[in-house]
Structure formats: structure tokens, C-alpha cells
Write a structure and sequence with these properties.
The chain is built from 15 helices and no strands. It is an all-alpha fold.
């Protein structure tokens, strides 16, 4: 029978709070393209995604086992370490949500856990081989593989469809996009909900509530699934706007190709136990779909900001996690200080977000992305359309002044 201490209860509640932020942070992964193309209304889209996230949470525990059994040595850490790790992950999720950047909740959790574990038990408590093979390598490969697959799928879609752009064709791709978005939501539940299951299971093991090597208990699976589903239903509208409109402009068939490619990659990684970032996968798929359509563009300034956030996620969350662990190590009052800091900072971020509200009513009204250096340079050297040069010269060069009566015209014979 599981026995709970106060710190263990705090860790479980904080883990479910992280799961909630993971839900609204990653809603864009499944539904941004579906909303941006008009295939589903925003509120219907997030409700569908929430339900399928909950279902997906019950399909597998492989990723949960990677976190609870493989990433760190559970015998060398305390529940306070898990709490500190969650603080780093939650704060990074909230900061990136505030600025509308689709960063990885998974890597925020991994970073927080690694940083707190190192601060508590040293580098030896982190299993480097698992970190490289099941976290870092998938992080690099996922957006590339998903992007190439999505680009090829988009080109194939336009190739077999030719120039068919009738209403029946658009309805067909919208229906396919809804189905593929549902598949992404299901896949998200099998991957991201499990990370919270894994972190709670790890906390239960370190607190002596369950035996080392145990699988997540049923109540852990259910609570994690409900938390991520509720967060998904709330909707991370700022990130949905960036993913759906700020990265590229998608037509229904592109959205279908992007989501199908992403769902395939996520489900495969869940089966293999890879703690994959669904954000990386979906972002790569969206960019691939943008490049796959003739005349399609990717807003590289947005993509660059996203890449910077991806690179910073692990170390930033690790630093916060390590700092939080250093304070909790001072005793119960240190843990209380960290808890107050987490609540106060979260409230401050929410208050700042109210200055510019983004919700289901204006999520598709994305502001225009400023032109980049390359775009400006190309526009500067592009020849103007035919017929504009004469008009421009007429408008800018004044006619010569006449100094007197016009001379008589020369006889026709003198004309050369």
C-alpha cells in the first residue's frame, strides 16, 4: 500500500500542474494547422484534442518507464529533487507560452530533472547513454525526418491531385486533416502524458511509496491523462497562433500531410520508448509542408526564434532545476521558499499575458511577420512589371521648360 508524506503529496500535485501546462503548451501540435486552415472551429478542435489525449494516455507506458527507470538513478535522489525539476520545467513552459514560442515541454522536464539530479547527487546519477540515445539524438533527428516526410507527402499530394481545387477536393482534405489531427492528439497522449506518469512514478519510488522498477499505478495514469486533457482543452492560443499562422501559410492538403507525418513519427517513437518532443516533430512537419507546395514559404525568422528556444530549453530548465534543488536542500523552509517562488512567478507571468489577450476569438488573426533581410534584398533587385518604368519616369522627371514659341516643324524631306 502506498504511503504519502507531505513532500511526496506536494511533488505529485506539482507534477500534475506541469502536466496541465504541458497540455495547453502543446495543444498547437495537434490543432494549430486544423484551426488555421478552417477545418475545425477553435473550441471544437481543442475539445476533440483533449478527449483523444486522455485516451492516448492509456495506450502505453514505454516512455514513462524511460523516465522513471532509465534517465537517472532513482536510488540516489530524494522527492525534493523531483520537485525542483518540476519547478524548472513549469517556469520554462510558462515563459515560452507567454512569448508564443512552441518549445518542448518534454525537454523542459528532462532538463529540470537532469539539473536537479546533478545538483543533488552529481553527474554520475545521470545515465548518459540513455540521455544521448533516447533524448538528444531523437531531438535532432525528429524535426528533420518529420520535415522531409511532410515535404514529400505534400508534393505527392499536389502531384496526384493536379490542379483539382474544387469544393469536393477541399472538403475531402479537410476531412482527412481532421482525422490526422485526431491521430496526432492520440499520439500526443501516448508520449507526453506518459512523461508526467514517469515523473510521478519516480517520485513514488524515491519516497518509498512503491518498489523500485514498478510500472505507473493506474491512478497515476488516470490523473496524468486528465491533467493533460484539461490543459489541452484550455488551449494554448498564443502558441497555436505561431504554429498555425506565424511559421507558414497552409492549405488543407498541406495540413493533412503535415499532421499525418507527425502522428506517424510520434507513435513510432512512443512504441520504441523514445522521449520525443512532439513540438519538434510537428514544427518540422509544418515547415516541410510549407516547402512542399510550389510557391510555399517558411517564415525563417520565426523558425530561427523557435530553434533558439529549442537549444536553450534543456540548459535553461536544468539551471533553474539545479538552483531550486540547492534551496530545497536547506530543509523544509527551503522547499516552502521554492514553492512560494513558483506560485508568485507563475501568477506574474499570467498577469503579464493579460495585457494582450489571445484566445479562440482572435487566434487566426496573426500579425504580419516583418520582412527579413533576404526577402528585402530580393525585392530590391526584382525587375518591376512591364509598363511601370515609363510611368515612373514620367512621374519623377519634370518636362523641360519652354523658352519661347515652338520652332516650325522641319519639312518631311529633311527627316532622317
Amino acid at each position: 500500500m502506498e504511503s504519502f508524506s507531505l513532500i511526496l503529496a506536494i511533488v505529485v500535485i506539482t507534477a500534475l500542474a506541469f502536466d496541465f501546462t504541458n497540455g495547453f503548451h502543446d495543444t498547437a501540435n495537434a490543432m494549430a494547422t486544423t484551426i488555421s486552415t478552417g477545418a475545425l472551429k477553435p473550441k471544437i478542435a481543442v475539445a476533440m484534442s483533449a478527449a483523444l489525449n486522455l485516451v492516448g494516455a492509456f495506450l502505453s507506458v514505454e516512455v514513462a518507464n524511460t523516465i522513471s527507470k532509465g534517465l537517472v538513478d532513482e536510488t540516489g535522489i530524494r522527492p525534493e529533487v523531483i520537485f525542483a525539476a518540476l519547478v524548472g520545467a513549469i517556469l520554462w513552459n510558462l515563459l515560452t507560452w507567454l512569448v508564443g514560442l512552441p518549445s518542448s515541454s518534454s525537454h523542459a522536464l528532462m532538463g529540470g530533472l537532469i539539473g536537479a539530479t546533478i545538483a543533488s547527487a552529481g553527474f554520475g546519477a545521470v545515465h548518459g547513454d540513455v540521455l544521448v540515445t533516447k533524448v538528444l539524438l531523437p531531438a535532432v533527428a525528429a524535426p528533420i525526418v518529420a520535415g522531409v516526410a511532410s515535404m514529400l507527402a505534400t508534393r505527392f499530394s499536389y502531384g496526384i491531385g493536379g490542379k483539382a481545387e474544387g469544393e469536393a477536393t477541399r472538403k475531402g482534405y479537410r476531412a482527412g486533416q481532421i482525422a490526422s489531427a485526431g491521430l496526432v492528439s492520440l499520439a500526443h497522449g501516448t508520449n507526453d502524458a506518459q512523461k508526467t506518469m514517469g515523473i510521478i512514478t519516480l517520485a513514488l519510488i524515491t519516497g518509498g511509496a512503491i518498489a523500485p522498477g514498478s510500472n505507473p499505478p493506474t491512478w497515476v495514469i488516470l490523473s496524468a491523462g486528465l491533467a493533460i486533457a484539461l490543459g489541452t482543452y484550455i488551449g494554448g492560443w498564443r502558441i497555436i497562433r505561431t504554429m498555425g499562422k506565424g511559421l507558414t501559410d497552409l492549405e488543407p492538403r498541406q495540413g493533412f500531410a503535415a499532421q499525418t507525418s507527425a502522428a506517424t513519427a510520434i507513435l513510432a517513437s512512443s512504441h520504441l520508448g523514445f522521449s520525443l518532443s512532439t513540438t519538434h516533430v510537428v514544427s518540422g512537419s509544418v515547415m516541410g509542408a510549407g516547402l512542399g507546395r510550389k510557391g510555399g514559404v517558411v517564415r525563417w525568422s520565426t523558425a530561427t526564434r523557435m530553434a533558439v528556444a529549442w537549444v536553450l530549453t534543456l540548459p535553461a530548465a536544468a539551471l533553474v532545476g539545479a538552483g531550486a534543488e540547492s534551496v530545497t536542500d536547506l530543509g523544509d523552509w527551503g522547499t516552502a521558499v521554492v514553492a512560494v517562488f513558483l506560485v508568485a512567478t507563475s501568477a506574474a507571468i499570467w498577469k503579464v499575458s493579460r495585457r494582450e489577450v489571445v484566445d479562440h476569438t482572435n487566434v487566426v488573426d496573426a500579425p504580419e511577420e516583418p520582412a527579413g533581410v533576404v526577402t528585402t534584398a530580393i525585392a530590391a533587385v526584382t525587375p518591376p512589371p512591364a509598363g511601370t518604368i515609363t510611368e515612373d519616369l514620367t512621374a519623377t522627371i519634370p518636362a523641360p521648360a519652354t523658352a519661347g514659341p515652338a520652332p516650325e516643324a522641319a519639312p518631311p524631306a529633311a527627316t532622317v
